[in-house]
Hints:
Number of domains: 1
Radius of gyration: 17 Å
Number of helices: 3
Strand order of the largest sheet: 1-2-3-4-5-6-7-8-9
CATH architecture: Roll
Number of strands: 9
Helix content: 10-25%
CATH topology: Nuclear Transport Factor 2, Chain: A
Mean pLDDT: 84
Shape: globular
Largest sheet: 9 strands, antiparallel
Strand content: 35-45%
Amino acid sequence: MKPKFVSKFLALPLLVFAGLSVQAQDSVKTLPPITITATQKTVPEKVWNSFHSYFANAKDPKAYEINKEYLIKFMTDENVNHALFTKGGEFVYHLSFGHEKNMPEEVKDAVKSVYYNYNITRAIKVTDGRRLVWVVNLENAKHLVLARTENGEVEEVQRLKKS
């Protein structure tokens, strides 16, 4: 289960960050488009029951079948969320897309202690039941940075120089 989580966990934030980097470089390599086919489906009762037990305050959930699993997109307060469940209702992962104000103080402090002269432009909370990782987009006058933090440790994933 861990490799699946890691690959899905890294792919989405990198795609989000890559979208920001297009403006930051003079020579940009264009990658072929990625197409994910998903159809809105009637969801098995096990999946809905599991979803509601995890996310009782979810607003406007919409479910999609992807590779025999169910991705449910929903809102909580002002945050967009994605949660993936197996067809048996087992929780796989949850992504919550937010901003600096959505980060816990200790996570924000850990990031700001390393990137004190950067603004946090986006924060994505990633959980899989065992792990909690924050993926953070940061920006200052000269650079865009993608960092991740887990258990109080901050790691730089990518740095791009602005032009």
